[in-house]
Amino acid sequence: MTMQIFYFYDPQTGHYFERLSDYLAYTEGTPDWHYLCGETGIIFEHLEDFTAWVLND
């Protein structure tokens, strides 16, 4: 299993953020929770899905 990095992703604009605080500031506290896998570019709607994908990789 390789280390996968995820980013907080805003599907409305396509912007992504490394830090949660930056993501929350950008979305003005109302995020549309999505996660972007840094290695593959795959977007996940739920962090649990990202985690399961990484564990099954």
List keywords for this structure.
alpha+beta, four-stranded antiparallel sheet, elongated, 57 residues, 30% helix, single chain
Please tally the helical runs, counting DSSP H or I stretches of 4 or more residues. 2
Which value, in Å, is the CA radius of gyration? 11 Å
Termini Cα gap: 6 Å
- Strand segment count: 4
Mind describing the biggest β-sheet? 4 strands, antiparallel
The general outline is: elongated
Percentage beta strand: 15-25%
Helix proportion of residues, in percent? Answer: 25-40%
Low-confidence parts: none
Neighbour order of strands in the largest sheet:
2-1-3-4
Mean pLDDT: 88
Structural class: alpha+beta
* N to C succession of SSEs: EEHEEH
Question: Can you put this structure into words, describing what you see?
Answer:
The protein has 2 helices and 4 strands, in the order ββαββα. It has a 4-stranded antiparallel sheet. With 57 residues, the chain is α+β, with helices and mostly antiparallel strands. The chain starts with 5 loop residues before the first strand and ends with a helix. 11% of the residues are buried. It is 30% helix and 21% strand.
